[in-house]
Every structure is written in C-alpha cells, then in structure tokens.
Amino acid sequence: MNRHSPLAFVVAALRSTLHLIFMAVTVVPWAIMVLVTSLFLSPNQIYWLCVGWLHLAVRSGCLILGIQNRVTGFENLPQAEDGQAILLVKHQSTWETFCMPTLMPHPLAYVFKRELLFVPFFGWAMARMDMIHIDRRKRSQAFSKVVEQGRRLLARGTWVIMFPEGTRIPRGQAGAYKTGGTKLAVQTGAPVIPVAVTSAKCWPRKALVKYPGTVDFVIGPPISSVGRDPEELMREVESWIEAKMREKDPDAYAS
Question: Residue 30 pLDDT more than 90?
C-alpha cells in the first residue's frame, strides 16, 4: 500500500489511535502499581518495573503500528558491569525515549525538564525513579546538579542518556548540538557513545499519525572524554551521528 495514499493515511490514523488508547489505558494501573510498590523496592527494582511498561508500549507499537527496530553496534557498549557511559542520542520522536531503556542492558538515567514530573500518572511514576530532572528556570544551578547527580549515578553503574539537540528535530534536519553531555563526560571521565536513530521515518516529530516501517538504532564506538575540550568533543559526536543519519535514511537528505 502506498504510504501517501488516502487509504494508507486512514489505516495509519486508526492504528495510531488504537495504540494511543492502549498506552493511556495501561499506563494508569502500571503507574499506580509503581507508586505503591516503590515504598518497598530499591531504586534499581523501581527502574526495571517502569521499564516493564516501556516494553509494553514498544511491543504494542510493533504489533499495532507496525514499527520494527533494527539495532546495530551493541558491541560498542561497555561490557564490564561497572562500565560507565554517557549516551548522546539523535532525537526525532517519542519513540526513542520509549525504546532506549528497553534496548540497553544497564539502567539509564535521563536528564529531563522538571515539568514532566507533573504529567498525571506517567510523570508521577517517573518521579519515583532515580534520574536527573532539572529546573530550567535555575539555569545557573541546573548544570551543577547534572554533574553532581551524573557522577553519583555513573559510579553505581547507571548510564546517563541525553539528547544533545535538546528537542525533537524534524526528519532530514539537524538541531544545534549543545555541549551539556560532553561537559558532563569531561568532568566525570566517562566515555561518550553516540547513537543515531531514524525514528521520524515512522513516528514523525509531534505527529499523531504513525506509519509502519523499520527504525534504525546505530550505536557508535565509545569516544574517550579524557583531556578533551567539550565543544570539540561534541563536534565529533555531531559529525558521527549526522553522517550515520544520512547513511541510514538517505531519502530524508536527498535534497
């Protein structure tokens, strides 16, 4: 079926609506379960309990929306139990925020804006997880908190994940890569791992209608942060990610 035909749009819209309803219906009881059981569970147990719902969301995305993931580069991830990593990920849609914890063998700590904690049920459950939420109104204090919390989480084997572009970027475009992630890497000595994601092929930025297809997650080789300049390091990360995006989604960059 031609993706651009009226029939394809109607089918995709119906499937997208069904998936949205499924997530809305399942997140409420799951969040309540997290809020109640978090009184008795360790931070690590709470994390994997929350990832259980993400597995449900991703699996339903595969079955209902027809989105499949293709992951390459697992060998580039730290193999040691105490191996550290700061994942710097291309950001095109919500899909990668759901998928990354389900794909990674270690707990992840997102750096995100504090406002998300007030989203009913979803945000309340996130608040029970040990992650890095920042108040953007207090910019002078925000990065200090990122370094403090990031150092603590990395020391216990949690990998930090950040979207260096800061927001979801339309397919075929590149946002301004901010140096927060590489600054954290330089200050903690943790290597950075770039990750290219072609999610906008199926789940466009801010789109209600999603389409079937294959999303590539390409995990790049770790880049040492020791003795590096954060801006130079981020340019290397950006160069790798954007080159890989053009390789995996050439139609988006044809012009």
Answer: yes
Q: Which of 17, 25, 13, 95 is nearest to 54 (CA)?
A: 95
pLDDT at 2: 57
Domains, the chain, in order of start with CATH, read 6-249 (3.40.1130)
In angstroms, the Cα distances linking 85 to 24, 88, 181, 233 are: 32, 9, 11, 15
Instruction: Name the amino acid, one letter, at 26.
Output: T
Contact 133, 117 (CB under 8 A): yes
For residues 101 and 108, is the Cβ–Cβ distance under 8 A?
A: yes
Alpha carbons 198 and 29: distance in angstroms, whole number? 31
Q: What is the mean pLDDT of the chain?
A: 92
Structure tokens at 195: 């990750």
Render pLDDT for 164-219 as a digit per residue (tens, 0 to 9).
999 999 999 999 999 999 999 999 999 999 999 999 999 998 889 999 999 999 99
From the list 35, 70, 72, 100, the residue with the least C-alpha distance to 220 is 72
Q: Which of 196, 137, 150, 141 is nearest to 171 (CA)?
A: 196
Report the alpha-carbon angle 89-93-98, nearest 5: 75
Q: Is the pLDDT of residue 241 over 90?
A: yes
